[in-house]
Design goal:
It is built from 15 helices and 15 strands. By secondary structure, it is an alpha/beta fold. A seven-stranded mixed sheet has the order 3-2-1-4-13-14-15, with no helix packed on it. A four-stranded parallel sheet has the order 5-6-7-8. It has a four-stranded parallel sheet with strand order 9-10-11-12. Helix 8 links the parallel strand 9 and strand 10. It is globular, with a radius of gyration of 21 Å. It starts with 12 loop residues before the first strand and ends with a strand. The model has no long low-confidence stretch (mean pLDDT about 95). Bound molecules: N-(iminomethyl)-L-glutamic acid (NIG) and fe (iii) ion. Fe (iii) ion binds next to loops.
Length: about 425
Amino acid sequence: MLLPHQAPDCADGLWTDLRLAPGAAPASTTTPDAPAAIVVAQGRIAWVGDASALPAHFAHLTPHAGAGAWVTPGLVDCHTHLVYGGQRANEFALRLAGASYEEVARAGGGIVSSVRATRQASEDELFASAAARLELLLAEGVCAIEIKSGYGLALAHERKQLRVARRLGKAFGVTVRTTFLGAHALPPEYAGRSSDSIDLVCRNRLPALAAEGLVDAVDVFCERIAFSLEETERVFKAAQALGLPVKLHAEQLSDMGGAALAARYGALSCDHIEHLSPAGIAAMRDAGSVAVLLPGAYYTLRDTHLPPIEALRQAGVPMAVSTDHNPGTSPCLSLLTMMNMACTLFRLTVPEALAGVTQHAARALGLQDTHGVIAVGMPANFVLWGVNEVAELAYWLGARPVQCVVRQGRIAA
Ligand code: NIG
Ligand code: FE
């Protein structure tokens, strides 16, 4: 029975008969396998713990029956390129015919072809296409998402991408973190003038977009087909001067030493990292940077060089898992599928994969105080799953096990 002041989709009240997935709530608040309860008040977690320990004054609240569902924190997709024009199925066909990702990129396809399509698209067109993709991610329980620029590569077009990202957050009631990836590829008009292009990124585009409140973090594609270590550091210095955190597309195709550099700048995360060296791992550990694993790109590119999972595990570097949704190397719109691939391809355990799309993904975005765990005081973001055991979240391919999503204190699905 809803109280009169509550909107029908308000999640406030007492959620009972739940099973909390391992790591879903702070260990001190729950006993493994004991029936659990969550209290939501004014959109925030007011209490979480064993149902048997529920304080009596919460017992009268609006009931929401969990019917024995497993519960996880809202999922966090911490690395996406969700806003872009067009798509690149033609390159899929080229790769099937034998071309490599690097060959396609060097022949004028790749990122630059998405740049052309993104520049041609209006803000409303970009919003509509990205919204359709976002809906699929949200339907699977995503409650926070990172969206990068990097397909505009000119001030007006980077702005357009970032504005769309902000609009998506408001329109869908989901936490969106924007990342400026102005150094994603060399735009065609700067061919042979990489250094000048980086100058513009540092002196003009980044400060302008940051001043407009459109930038939460700064990323660079540090790779032999993109930007050098020295160019990457120039962008990091510009970010640092503006007080913005950095992250890096690092060691995807080769070991450039990018992760160690990013760690020196206190990077939130280093992403891809198939070719990460022991020195890079040590630097990330010391800096507290998250290793973001992107099995969708690994799979799509038919990569065979595995990221150094065991060494990361031994070093205690937190590992996140994300879709890396983008039109070139990871046209994936399912974070659960990424959990499956992280387990099957990278040999993560199920608890590691789950932590990878919740608490570690939140940390990769600097959102660890508000997302990734169900804890008192945090905004209510959690998912009820219609599964018998938690491992099913990573086990099924293409299942739709979501029973109910509570996002930003509202029952969203
Ligand atoms: O994360 N590695 C660089 N950027 C994207 C690919 C972008 C594209 O091909 O359009 C990635 O995999
Ligand atoms: Fe990426």
